[in-house]
Amino acid sequence: MSDHKTMTLTLIVWRQKNANDPGKFATYTATNITEHHSFLEMLDCVNEDLILAGKEPIVFDHDCREGICGMCSQVINGAPHGGQDRTTVCQLHMRKFKDGDTIYIEPWRARAFPIIRDLIVDRAALDTIIQAGGYTSCHTGGVPDGNAVLIPKPIAEEATDAAECIGCGACVAGCPNGAAMLFTGAKVSQLALLPQGKAEAVARVKNMTAAMAECGFGNCSNHYECQAACPKGINVKFIARMNREFLKAQFA
Amino acid sequence: MILDGKCPTGPIEKSWDKHRFDLKLVNPSNKRKYNIIMVGTGLAGAAAAASLGELGYNVQAFCYQDSPRRAHSIAAQGGINAAKNYPSDGDSILRLMYDTIKGGDFRAREADVWRLSQVSNNIIDQCVAQGVPFARDYAGYLDNRSFGGAQVSRTFYSRGLTGQQLLLGAYSALSRQIKAGTVTMHTRREMLDLVVVDGVAKGITVRNLVSGELESYAADAVCLATGGYVNVFYLSTNAKGCSVTANWKAAKKGAFFANPCYTQIHPTCIPQAGEYQSKLTLMSESLRNDGRIWVPKKKEDVGKLPAEIADADRDYYLERKYPSFGNLAPRDISSRSAKEACDAGLGVGPGGRGVYLDFADSIKRLSEDTIRERYGNLFEMYEKITDENGYKRPMRIYPAPHYAMGGLWVDYNLMSNIPGLFVLGEANFSVHGANRLGASALMQGLSDGYFVIPYTIGGYLVTVKPGAVTADHPEFKKSVDDVKATNNKFLSINGKKTVTEFHRELGKVMWNNVGMARSKESLTEAIKVIPQIRDEFWKNVKVSGTGAELNQQLENAGRVADFLEFGELLARDAMHREESCGGHFRVEHQLPDGEAMRNDADFSYVGAWEYKGNDKEPELHKEPLKFETIHLAVRSYK
């Protein structure tokens, strides 16, 4: 509420009308921002002013605004999601900024993520990777009892660590090579760890890595920027596991 | 009109099996001749699209997000119920059915709830086979936890991420079918109209949210799995894109809207911090296991730091009013009590809209580490949003709109009163009655998607000729023209208020008058004021840009325009239901101790409303509810 001092901020925002427009930075002022505003609510305020002034509001992807849907896709001051540990843009709050700050806001930038408009990019390539094999081929119905196959707690926990990926693509945006290794490695590892996923492990890792290359993602050269950018703290050990799975698949 | 749910008769234990046997089948080689539209790809929609595609139907699936993996099912934290009885603690299909009927305050259909309880076990098996990493014990067996409204441990979970893991399971099954070519996925598309030909649902009009183009899709059946409508309150725990639009468009084409006044207000959410706030964040109600809820006894203490208020000056109101359930009283009761305390001027934090959830006693008893192990991620989330440390000072919580029990009316086959229009998951009204128990929403979405619609839709499709209507039928062009005219209208008004300003205004009216406690006066006020806001909206809203591009203002304008119509229906339903039940609390109808007072003699029915035009009152149709297996009783958790 208003018992706190308000901030005035300078925003330098990437504006791009559509995929074919070259795009450019534009400067805006955000006023009356409190430390309790979330980053997106700060942008909402700027947009309300723009709309009433008859100007085009800044377009950005968002939905759940609680850090789980993975729609957010903004690079803030050079860091995907703004650089706060394990935090998506929607959970980033303005108390992390100071009155008078200048903030640069850009979309995810990667060859595999064409810009649609302003801060919105096309991440269909991530779906394409999952469609290449990020599943078990079980039918609806006709599966065994959930307790028929035992999965010890440490295995289930490690699979869950990998499964926490929200598919936002920050790992790709953070990677100097525009690689989707952390995203793909997390799914390959989740299913390789679980007994349900082992039957198709060989085909899965081959098909998903091939899809990765076809979609225009780069390769991994161990910068670990992906792990630093990941709002769910997915560990690069899952890239290592995928590499092992890939190697095993060559001899299968 | 008296509505018939077409529920099977005979012993409830055999009802679903018998019904499945009685349903006609579509020959495998004929299935590929049928086209099915699936709008929405949350738990219900993704599960249904995947299962129907696998059966051999041609499925066209649609979502407004950039990927089917993002639907708001993903935000569910706690878990999913099933009657597995793995802990051997007395659970059974019948007990799950009993708890669900009672939890819903005897306002749901018995046959539907039996079926839900029966297939609950298949859901767990299905998800395990997909690689959903449920919590396990060290021996490798599935783990269970307890949830509200039940005396058994039947909730399966994956950390605080159960919804995410289940949705990603359904998304993976869907992805497999997209790859196989049985499902065509259309992302960034919003359904803006239902196309009805000769009284039968035959397709939809959607807006391509990137190009702005309006597109027509024809099919032999249309399924809506489009979620709930509590964003009518503006601030809620729903995602920003959640709307009533798909359902409301169907309602305007003749589908009946059932029990819109049954809305769930969840007690443990982080309070609103300011006027600019765009949504509310839920924290799992499991926190109430170890947290004690209180407000200051004296108004003059409200502004003090919590540590400065002596224990004797604190009112642990749930423990005082519900000594046997204490802080674990059901959701509707806990929410109402918090509102009462705040209305009495005892609320804490900004605007007096909060009560304390205090872990000090548990930390003293169990240690901070134990509390961190149990709820660490929730404390972290609380701190991110409020910048307060929940271990050091009590959290502040306040109730928030969370879930819609009401929805489009469907029969036992999940078909609405419009032939060919099916409604799944939160979008229909079927199983939760007037209040939903925790860990039951995920169960219903997946039940409808994996195990109900794949059977029941066949029984309908055998009665229609595949491909009888195509998108060149004049009704499709008319629908596109209508949508275009509405969008052009939004763009041409060029008024002085933004779409969000109108949405906030509506939300305030809904929350203050049609929220946790409703009265004849408050509802009269809402029914008077909502049309005024609506009129002003159509004269004074400002939507810039064009329709032929990505335009988020235009998207929101359509959604808010629909909320401005639907909100009035919600208020009218609440006005007509002269009783209190579950999430619907009328202050005129309460027992001397403040508990909800149902009126079974007059209101033991589903209220399904037929749209008659914006300036005309909707017409009420009733489906009487019969309770033959679970006997009507006063719902008591004391």
Secondary structure: elements and pairs:
The complex is a heterodimer of chains A (252) and B (638).
Chain A: E1 7-15, E2 24-33, H1 39-52, E3 74-76, E4 79-80, E5 102-107, E6 115-117, E7 120-121, H2 124-131, H3 153-163, H4 170-174, H5 181-193, H6 195-198, H7 201-214, H8 225-229, H9 237-250
Parallel strand pairs in A: 1-5
Antiparallel strand pairs in A: 1-2, 3-4, 3-5, 6-7
Helix pairs in contact in A: 2-7, 3-5, 5-7, 5-9, 7-9
Chain B: H1 12-22, H2 28-31, E1 35-39, H3 43-55, E2 58-62, E3 80-81, H4 93-103, H5 110-130, E4 155-156, H6 162-180, E5 183-186, E6 189-197, E7 200-208, E8 214-218, E9 221-224, H7 245-252, E10 257-258, E11 263-269, E12 292-296, E13 314-315, H8 317-321, H9 331-343, E14 355-358, H10 360-366, H11 368-386, E15 395-404, E16 407-408, E17 421-423, H12 441-461, H13 474-493, H14 499-514, H15 520-540, H16 552-576, H17 600-603, E18 605-610, E19 619-624
Parallel strand pairs in B: 1-2, 1-9, 2-5, 9-17
Antiparallel strand pairs in B: 3-4, 6-7, 7-8, 10-16, 10-18, 11-15, 12-13, 12-14, 14-15, 18-19
